Amino acid sequence: MTFPAGFLWGAATASYQVEGAVSEGGRGPSIWDTFAAADGKVLGGATGDVACDHYHRYPEDIGLLADLGLNAYRFSVAWPRVMPDGRTTSAAGLAFYDRLVDELLSRGVLPVLTLYHWDLPQALEDAGGWPSRDTASRFADYAAVVHAALGDRVRQWTTVNEPFCAAFLGYGSGVHAPGGQDHATALVAAHHLLLAHGLAARALTGPGHEVSLALNFAPAIPDGSSPAHAEAARKFDGIHNRFFLDPVLGRGYPADVVAAAGRFAECVRDGDTDVIAAPIDWLGVNYYAPARVTPLDDPQAPSNCPLPTLRGLDVLPAPPPLTAFGWEQSPATLTSLLTWISARSGGLPLVVAENGASFVDKVVDGRVYDAARVNYFMEHLRAVHDALGLGVDVRGYFAWSLLDNFEWAMGYTQRFGLIHVDFETQRRTVKESGRFLGRVAKANSL
Ligand code: FCB
Question: For this structure, is 354 an active site residue?
């Protein structure tokens, strides 16, 4: 397999999942500090207080990434480090990212910076959080501050990571911070996250700068061929995929979703959809697994899809082989997803901004033989290669994740890293999958 010249070969992390040092450098609390500290929210009572201690160990971690042969690092900036109260800039907080970016550049690694990967300053949550429209404006201010500080060296800017999860898991199902459980509110939060993306995009311009956002896609596979199955898949696809993709592409919110979404339209003001449609240079595609959907005979019956827009369907258990998380492995779906987005967007450049799998890993004699993950990456890279062959403009591939880390509500129980982390000692061990990905990257960079 050969990939286009200039292809980005990277690994991704997110601030709260790896940094630790939650009270250092003047960092303020985020919604994840609060959520993780509350009883019963995170498996095993785990928190990101220490995580991978990346705040102190970033030179070692970047060294490992560079030595593997990867040429890009997708990381996120912690808003509460840069603005402890969500509004006031902290020089010490910015200085950390200054050091991080300089370290990357000194190792020849391209920084790909995400501004929001879910760690909202607690002070802004207290002022209303994402259900409040003002949060989108605060985000635009924050984006401008980070851009002014790092824009001389960082050219790749991603505004928001996975607004679906931030809105629907954070304010709807309540399994993520801040733990809200109201689906109508979650839809409003989703709109404000997209608005935040659009407002920030305007602030992120500069010579050679590229703007993006990262959406998570869950392609819907109907578990049967009846019209009712097709209808169930359409509904699922609407809220998971089109509701976020379409407004970003300038198509507005999909009419079928809006029609099913109660009073949602009331929060969308004149001009909002134009803001959200701000031009982007590439789209980050986060892909893990499809969803197998089936219609329910009784459209009002309780289902495992609680969103109001999803009445009348269920998601079935995934067929094996599963990852440790219980997620399906379907590389072919990545090819069809990339092809679909490319067609829908008129050939927008795409970057696979997250793809990866958790498995149970063991360090044996200083090595981690994670054959299942090697296979996972190999098959998904083939899937990307197939999409390239079909004419899709894919510009890069980022493994989730560089390091085993704090996997949100699952605590430290799901290891996704190319590098194993012993959370007792902070010892790093490169896994075979890391070497594999690095070899592919190097072979393509000759
Ligand atoms: C994605 C998140 C990322 C990580 C992976 C497993 O939804 O963006 O932080 O948790 O899932």
Answer: yes
